Every structure is written in structure tokens, then in C-alpha cells.
């Protein structure tokens, strides 16, 4: 237990930053509703592994260099917000017909992992976490490995909650009226996430 005490601040930061709303969690809620929890697992794993790689890059100091380049920051924002607006456009006509569902596929592992590098919230989390919570008094490589492992171990259950919530909501959205209402809410939240990137 004493060995875990120095990691509690990191675990707390990982929990708060992972459980709060953001592009990944909104996308996972949509995936849980549309495809169910089980089919969303590759999406969840892609987020966590991709984010773990991003954590390692930022902890090694590359993240600060990236954030020091205004043109690259803008490129990240354009890519991230563009994808979210595309997702919002797709969600506008979301329905729960089994035949329509069969014609679509959930986001795969590689796409979800790659999206982390276009997600400004992920960059902020990774850079802030690396600057504030990288374990001290350890060899650098071991400190980065421990930091990434702990963060990812907290992140995966947190984002799974959002996919699970979507899967639960799926059961209550048989009524076409509620489907339309829910789709409108999800489109608004996704579009807001895209715009919030620029705020």
C-alpha cells in the first residue's frame, strides 16, 4: 500500500481527466448505443493504447515541442474538429433498425488509436500529466513506463463507463420520437466538442 501512495495524485488526475466528457467519451456513448458494448471494445482499446503511446511521447518531451509549434497546433485542431463535425453529420440520421446497423461498422482499433493524435484534449491531458505526475527518483524509461501503465489502467475502465451507458440507453430508444430527440442531443454535444477545441 505504501508503494502506491506516491501514485495516488497521478491516479486521481487520470480518473478525473478520463471520466469527464470529451470527444472520446461522446464517441463511445454513440458507439455503445449504435453497436452495443461488445462491438465497441476495439474502439475502447484503441483509445487507451493510442493514448498510452501519446502519453509516452509527451513524457519524453516531444509533446512540449509539438505544442510550441503554432502551425502544428492549428493542424491538430483542424483535424480533430473536422472529424467530430463529420461524426455529428453522421449522427443526424442515426437509427436503430437492425438492417441499418448491420450496414455500419464501429470505429476500429487502429482508427481509435490514431484519433488520439488529433484530439487536443488528449494532448492537453498527456502534456499536463507528464509535467506534473511523472514519477521521480526512477530511471527515465522506467518512470515513463510506470506513468503510462498507471494512466492507461485508470483510463480504460473510465471510458468503458461511457460505452456501457450508451449500451444501456440503447434499450430505451425503441420509440422513434425518442430516437430523434436523442440524436439531436448527441449531434449538439458532438458539434459542441468540435467547437470547444477552438475555445
From TrEMBL:
Pfam families according to UniProt: LysE (PF01810)
Subcellular location(s) of the protein: Cell membrane
GO cellular component: plasma membrane
Keyword Cell membrane: yes
Membrane topology label: Multi-pass membrane protein
Xref: InterPro entries: LeuE-type
Alphabetical keyword list: Cell membrane, Membrane, Transmembrane, Transmembrane helix
Record has Transmembrane helix as a keyword: yes
Example GO biological process: cysteine export across plasma membrane
GO molecular function, one term: amino acid transmembrane transporter activity
PANTHER family named among the record's database cross-references: ARGININE EXPORTER PROTEIN ARGO, ARGININE EXPORTER PROTEIN ARGO-RELATED
Protein name as it appears in the record: Threonine/homoserine/homoserine lactone efflux protein
Amino acid at each position: 500500500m505504501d508503494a502506491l501512495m506516491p501514485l495516488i495524485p497521478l491516479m486521481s488526475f487520470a480518473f478525473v481527466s478520463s471520466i469527464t466528457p470529451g470527444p472520446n467519451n461522446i464517441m463511445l456513448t454513440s458507439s455503445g448505443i449504435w453497436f452495443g458494448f461488445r462491438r465497441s471494445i476495439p474502439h475502447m482499446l484503441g483509445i487507451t493504447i493510442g493514448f498510452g503511446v501519446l502519453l509516452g511521447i509527451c513524457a519524453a518531451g516531444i509533446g512540449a515541442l509539438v505544442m510550441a509549434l503554432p502551425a502544428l497546433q492549428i493542424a491538430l485542431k483542424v483535424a480533430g474538429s473536422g472529424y467530430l463535425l463529420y461524426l455529428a453529420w453522421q449522427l443526424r440520421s442515426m437509427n436503430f433498425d437492425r438492417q441499418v446497423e448491420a450496414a455500419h461498422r464501429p470505429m476500429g482499433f487502429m482508427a481509435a488509436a490514431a484519433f488520439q493524435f488529433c484530439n487536443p484534449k488528449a494532448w492537453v491531458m498527456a502534456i499536463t500529466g507528464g509535467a506534473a505526475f511523472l514519477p521521480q527518483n526512477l530511471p527515465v524509461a522506467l518512470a515513463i513506463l510506470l506513468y503510462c501503465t498507471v494512466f492507461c489502467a485508470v483510463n480504460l475502465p473510465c471510458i468503458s463507463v461511457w460505452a456501457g451507458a450508451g449500451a444501456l440507453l440503447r434499450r430505451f430508444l425503441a420509440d422513434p420520437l425518442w430516437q430523434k430527440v436523442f440524436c439531436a442531443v448527441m449531434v449538439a454535444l458532438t458539434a459542441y466538442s468540435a467547437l470547444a477545441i477552438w475555445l
